[in-house]
Structure formats: structure tokens, C-alpha cells
Amino acid sequence: MKMIKKMLLATVVAGLLATSSPVKANLVLLDFEDMSDLTSVGESYASDGIHFNNAISLTAGFSLNEFDFPPSSGDVAIGDDLGPIEIRFDNLTQDISANFTYGSQLTFFAYDSTSSLIGTYVHPSLNNYGLTEQISLSFTGVSSLMIAGEWDGSFIMDDFGFDSAAPAPAPVPEPTAMLLVGTGLVGLVRSMKRKRNDKRPQK
């Protein structure tokens, strides 16, 4: 009898889980290869839930000195333009990383959805000319990010990635899931009634 109850309860739980709304991981990686040279990034990636300010595309062999500032992949990277790069996300974000080449120390400022400062990260190295370095940030719940060098045009960024864990739309319960829940509940009630009847004294 105990085994039957456990099986029925497991069926009910499985049915309820099948109708629950999961969290959808939304992993995004931008390599900027679709950007034309010297183009303001702005809303170019709005469809990916990300918006830029003070960022411009730079192409190796044209506007970008690839010997001192090599892109980490392809020919295009983005650089700071007339101020720190500001990035705004449509959904709260975590696991932010990118590859950087920089001529001055970099500072990262992360903000939540109320524009309150979550934290600051100051990268210890002063420059890495001719190289590219991945920098990963441990902040969670990030709504916007600011990346600042010590002067305009002091760094480039490539292969920018982040995880925007947006809740998936609540699914409509499938008929099979509802049937599992209903069958499990009916079976559980019948099992409990049968057990009570077995305990009554026989006439």
C-alpha cells in the first residue's frame, strides 16, 4: 500500500512539474562582424535585448590598428567613442564576459533595474597591447553596465557574451499533463478510502 501511494504521489508531482513555467536561459554572443566600419553600435543588437551607447565599430586594416589592438576573432571589434561604453539589457543579466585589448586600466560598473550600483570591478593590468584578454564579471541581476578606460579610444572589445535568464512564457497545460494529475488524484483518494474501509470492524 505504501508503495502504491508513493507511485501515485510521484505521478501527481510529475504532472504538476509538466505544467510549471521554467526559467529560460538566453545565452547571447556578439562578435560584431556584421557591423560596417566606423558605425555607431547603438540599437544594432536591440533584437538580442541589448543596447549600446558611446560604442563604435572598428575594422582591422582600416580604422583599427590590429597590431596594437587585435580583434579576438574576425576583423571587427568595438571601441569606446566619446566616453565610457554604456550597455543596457532588456532583461536582468549575468555571466558577462568579453575579450579586451586596452591601453589603460579598465573599470566596470554594474547597475540593477533601479540604476543602483551593484558593484565595481577594476582590472589590475594597465595595458595588454598586441594581445587579447578575456575578462569575466561575477555580477548577477545586471540591468546596465558601464566600461571605462582612462581616455577616449583606450580599448576595444570583442566577442561579448552574456546570459539573460528571462522567464519563459507560462505554457498552457497539455491535456496529457492534466490527465496525469487527475488520474493520480483519483487514485490517491480511492486508495485512502479503501484503507479506511479495511480498518472498520467486520460485522
Could you outline the blueprint of secondary structure elements for this entry?
Blueprint (H helix, E strand, L loop, with lengths): L1 H17 L4 E2 L2 E4 L19 E4 L1 E5 L16 E5 L4 E18 L4 E5 L5 E6 L10 E5 L4 E7 L6 E10 L1 E2 L7 H25 L4
Antiparallel strand pairs: 1-12, 2-11, 3-6, 4-5, 5-11, 6-9, 6-10, 6-11, 7-8, 7-10
Mean pLDDT reading: 83
* Amount of helix: 10-25%
Overall shape:
elongated
Q: How many independent structural domains? A: 2
Multimeric state: single chain
CATH 2nd-level architecture of the largest domain: Sandwich
Strand content: 35-45%
Spatial separation of the terminal alpha carbons:
24 Å
The poorly predicted ranges are 3-14, 16-21
**CATH topology type of the largest domain:** Jelly Rolls
How many DSSP E strands? 12
